[in-house]
Amino acid sequence: MERDQVAALLAGAGGYLSGEEMSRTLGVTRAAVWKEIEALRGAGWPIESSTRKGYRLAGPPPALSAPYISARLGPGNLFAGKITVEPLVDSTNTRLKARAHSAPTGSVLLAEEQSGGRGTHGRSFQSPRGDGLYLSALIRPRVGLADLLTLTGWVAVAAREGVEKASGAPVDIKWLNDLYLNGKKLCGILTEFALLAESGEPDYVVTGMGVNMNQSAETFRAQGLEGVAASLAGEGWPVEQNHLAVCLLEALDKLVRDFPEKRTDYLERYRAHCITLGRRVSFDGEGSLQAGTVTGVDGNFALVVDGDDGKRHVVSSGTVKMIG
User: Fold this and answer.
1) pTM value?
2) Which residues, in sequence order, are CB contacts of 37 under 8 Å at separation 6+?
């Protein structure tokens, strides 16, 4: 589509680009280029023009844009050119999983809004339009199941670093894969994978995340989440949504390149920002709810807890709540 191609050229130029250059690159007339630029302007794109220099994108587009994000990622990024933006889906993870068998590795789905966002353990995730970034990515790591089971911890590291790069916010990780800001939940992450029926080997992984961007204290109060949830803007770290998507996908691209060889490095980064370490927690253990003190994160990103029962527990799944 020429409009998307024009948008991508402007987003990737980093400065002025003449109509002649764009028409030559796209193989269309300058009049056709001008028509698409005017259409983009009508949609709110901040495009400046100069008689001698051409056209320049003066800022980000007014809404999520697949061609803009791809152009900012660059051709070497796994996800560039494979991004879809939809105004409304039930769940980006659910929708991308439904496409997984035919979609290429690196496919990304972003939504302006989710009607049925999901978190871990089947919990619902509030996903209103304009308040958050809702993103899922499809990858196919060629690793064994043991390595694959550690991937959620890796994604937490990548998401934390992507959000911090985009906004500057000092984001923490709450075991296993929630991002926290100032002691309140900022982002939920859900990583799901499928196995090949014939061999039991991993087939694909869909990792999704929802980042709170613009909710106000009043919004959280109305949802019964005051003091529990946080947004970047609400905590003083506003960020533009396309820029946040770019930073998250850059971090995920690096993860794919590093996985699983650089586990030690990711473990160090995980532990350095894990606020669950040293805390009193309750956890599911041996069929009952137990309590103890977290003493570490082991080599598989499992939580090590010295229980009040005098035993050392290694918690790799289930609900863990900080109680002190």
Assistant:
1) 0.94
2) 6, 19, 47, 49, 55
